[in-house]
């Protein structure tokens, strides 16, 4: 006969086992559910990350004046490369780069012993020619004095007169050669052609100077006023007026504006670049503008109130033309072909293909395509990036 205490103990063990089994099943189910939830959450996050975030701008219309920024090259008002006219050796140089010189100031001297000897010979030749001419003239006068005595023939008289003229011409030639050599002697002194600054010295004491080689010795620039050359697009050329004021900004002076005015234009459009060459003049009393400097030239031009403008960074250049990426009401990309107008540097006009209510993607990626789903970060106003 079974002991009641044993039965009670068996029931207790079965209850404990069932509880453990239920707990194990619950833990397993909970783990599976948790993993499923995490997997679903990860899938949602991956999908969200796959949608690119874009910044959009609103097109604006032109108002007041528009700043057109173009690159410019600054040159000296005058600039001369100085070459030697006589051969020899450089005896001495007096001015180095950066020196401010006056017109006619000595830059260097050339030692030309061969030229010096040629000058001595030319003086002797001229003296000889003068003596021969004087003797021939005296002889001709004596023969002419005998003309009335009929003791000499007219032929002899004419011959001596012609010889006197020939000797006189030879004296003139000798004098011209002497003057030429004296002028060349003056070129032994290398002088500044005008007041300015020495921008280059390409010779040194003892260097062989050969005029035929075309060797540049010095370069002098007149920098009291600077010429600035800018290539202006053809579309903007009609808005330029002589005397208009522009601002010039240099990389080395980022917080300073230099004023210049439009002096003249080439009155011709370059066939290759379709641009007009414009010459500006800028005062340079403080000498901060240097020849060869790059600068940004800012033209203040009237804006067209009937034309929309967007940042230049929004343009997409594709094989079939220029496009803008526009975000529709469902945050999907629509590519719009557009016709460009005037280019103001950071801002460009859109002649057709765009509406004022469009949301334009700024700095779109090259891979952006029609119908892409995007997330809009924040709208920017007035078409500025």
TrEMBL record:
Residues 306-361 form the Multidrug resistance protein MdtA-like C-terminal permuted SH3 domain. Residues 119-180 form the Multidrug resistance protein MdtA-like alpha-helical hairpin domain. The keyword Membrane does not apply. Signal peptide: none annotated. Gene3D superfamilies: 2.40.30.170, 2.40.420.20, 2.40.50.100, Helix hairpin bin. It is found in: Cell envelope. Pfam families: Beta-barrel_RND_2 (PF25954), BSH_RND (PF25917), HH_MFP_RND (PF25876), RND-MFP_C (PF25967). One of its GO terms (cellular component) is efflux pump complex. InterPro entries: Beta-barrel_RND_2 (IPR058792), MdtA-like_BSH (IPR058625), MdtA-like_C (IPR058627), MdtA-like_HH (IPR058624), RND_pump_MFP (IPR006143). Residues 80-215 form the Multidrug resistance protein MdtA-like barrel-sandwich hybrid domain. Keywords: Transport. Residues 230-300 form the CusB-like beta-barrel domain. GO terms for molecular function: efflux transmembrane transporter activity. This is Macrolide export protein MacA. It comes from mine drainage metagenome. The gene is macA_7.
């Amino acid at each position: 006969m079974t002991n009641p205490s044993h039965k009670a103990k068996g029931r207790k063990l079965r209850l404990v086992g069932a509880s453990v089994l239920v707990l194990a099943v619950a833990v397993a189910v909970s783990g599976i559910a948790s993993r499923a939830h995490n997997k679903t959450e990860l899938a949602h996050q991956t999908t969200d990350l796959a949608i690119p975030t874009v910044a959009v701008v609103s097109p604006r219309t032109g108002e007041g004046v528009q700043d057109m920024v173009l690159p410019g090259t600054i040159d000296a008002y005058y600039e001369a490369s100085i070459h030697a006219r006589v051969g020899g050796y450089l005896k001495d140089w007096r001015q180095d780069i950066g020196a401010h010189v006056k017109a006619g100031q000595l830059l260097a001297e050339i030692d030309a012993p061969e030229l010096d000897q040629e000058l001595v010979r030319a003086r002797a030749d001229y003296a000889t020619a003068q003596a021969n001419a004087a003797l021939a003239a005296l002889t001709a006068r004596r023969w002419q004095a005998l003309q009335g005595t009929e003791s000499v023939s007219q032929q002899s008289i004419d011959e001596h007169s012609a010889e006197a003229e020939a000797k006189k011409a030879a004296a003139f030639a000798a004098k011209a050669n002497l003057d030429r050599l004296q002028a060349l002697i003056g070129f032994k002194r290398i002088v500044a052609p005008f007041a300015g600054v020495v921008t280059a010295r390409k010779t040194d004491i003892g260097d062989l100077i050969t005029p035929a080689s075309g060797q540049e010795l010095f370069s002098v620039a007149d920098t009291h006023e600077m010429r600035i050359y800018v290539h202006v697009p053809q579309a903007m050329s009609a808005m330029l007026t002589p005397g208009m004021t522009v601002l010039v900004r240099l990389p080395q002076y980022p917080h300073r504006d230099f004023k210049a005015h439009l002096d003249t234009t080439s009155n011709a459009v370059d066939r290759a670049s379709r641009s007009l060459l414009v010459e500006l003049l800028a005062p340079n009393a403080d000498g901060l503008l240097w020849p060869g400097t790059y600068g940004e030239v800012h033209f203040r031009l009237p804006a067209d109130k009937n034309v929309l403008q967007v940042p230049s960074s929004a343009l997409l250049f594709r094989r079939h033309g220029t496009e803008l990426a526009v975000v529709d009401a469902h945050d999907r990309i629509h590519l719009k072909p557009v016709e460009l107008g005037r280019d103001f540097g950071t801002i460009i006009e859109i002649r057709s293909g765009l509406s004022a209510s469009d949301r334009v993607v700024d700095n779109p990626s090259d891979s952006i395509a029609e119908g892409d789903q995007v997330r809009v970060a924040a709208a920017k106003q007035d078409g500025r990036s």
